[in-house]
Prior knowledge:
By secondary structure, this protein is α/β, with parallel strands linked by helices. The protein folds into two domains: about 70-90 and about 195-370, 3-Layer(aba) Sandwich (Rossmann fold), CATH 3.40.50.1100; about 95-185, Rossmann fold (3-Layer(aba) Sandwich), CATH 3.40.50. The chain is built from twelve helices and 13 strands. The protein has helices at about 95-105, 120-130, 145-155, 165-180, 195-200, 200-210, 225-240, 260-265, 290-300, 310-320, 325-340, 365-370, and strands spanning about 1-5, 10-15, 25-30, 70-75, 80-85, 110-115, 135-140, 155-160, 185, 215-220, 250-255, 305, 350-355. The protein has a six-stranded mixed beta sheet, with helices on both faces. A four-stranded parallel beta sheet has the order 8-7-6-9, with helices on both faces. The longest helix is centred in the C-terminal third of the chain and has 15 residues, at about 325-340. It is globular, with a radius of gyration of 19 Å. Zinc ion binds near residues 5, 7, 8, 10 and 21.
Amino acid sequence: MSYNCYNCGKTYGQDELILECSCGGYLKAPERTLRKKDIISGDPTLWRYRKALPIGENETVVSLGEGLTPLVKTNLGGLFFKADSLMPTGSFKDRGAALVINHLKKLGIKKVINDSSGNAAAAYAAYCAAAGLECHIFTPASTSAGKLVQIQMYGATITKVTGARDQVTIAAKEEAKKQEGEAMYAGHNIHPLFPEGCKTAAYEIWEQLGWEVPDNVVVPFGGGSAMLGMYKGFRELLSVGEIPRMPRIFVIQANSCNPLYSLFIGKEELAQCVPSLAEGIAIAQPIKKVEAVAAVRQTGGSVEVVSEAEIVEALGKAAKAGFYVEPTTAATIAGALRLQRTGVIDANEKTVVLLTGNGLKATDKIGQAMGFMNASQ
Ligand SMILES: [Zn+2]
């Protein structure tokens, strides 16, 4: 398999230790296909779809049991929740991390470097631990100590970087350059295999709905891996006729950080990025935003923004329906409920909301937002 530059189309081998094209563009893995008969039904993990993943039929992988999370019909507007909040590290990022870390191990990389402070860092750290690789995470200096505990528990090294968010990325890349051959920077927002892992959520939804395509899928948007993975997964089913059409894909951002929304409505001058409760999607300059907007349009979906108040309200509504989710996921639920209220989505349609992260990861933030504890507790 090879990768192609999204910008200029140049081809690179899958085993080349490269993440960006010489033109500066990011790399994409080509579309594959998946048919019902390809699924290894005895494997209760995402590796049941290995026919559509860049891995050999009999190759062993490091697995924490990722994938095949429940799809639950809720009493919240009849929405289906895809509970990736129940993944091994508590977020959907395990899908991408499992693919990336297994690939880097195969290439002989000894140390993986990523820049993140949240769910992706925890996922990388966990899979590196299981695979016996070193993991070095670069985080913004402002990252709360509580968030770093899970990452440190998996044995990852943490370096805090002062300055803007892009300084963190630069520091991570510089560290990797110093140890070329041994260490590799494998940023989750840019590595071409990350969306390959995320696409398996689409396969699972199709399988769990009894081989049907949902009418709508609602996902949050930060760097785009959930959304572009979902899009790719359904495209791959469509291309071989396993589903008759694409679902509409709706993408939710917090209004506090809305670069995709402002691009979607053609008013990039309105883009802003100030701190949001939905910190998992507060990314000011998502590099895949042009591709994402084109994909959303192609499915007939849209990009929506929700307020901080709507996020808090949705945290409560989700919990009262039995789902304890992190604020980023609550933003997604708030968006889905709004789309129902405004009639864009009909309550009788099959609408799947991706629960990207577990509430247990953000108990301090949730407690403060709901007024159960104050900031100093
Ligand atoms: Zn290029």
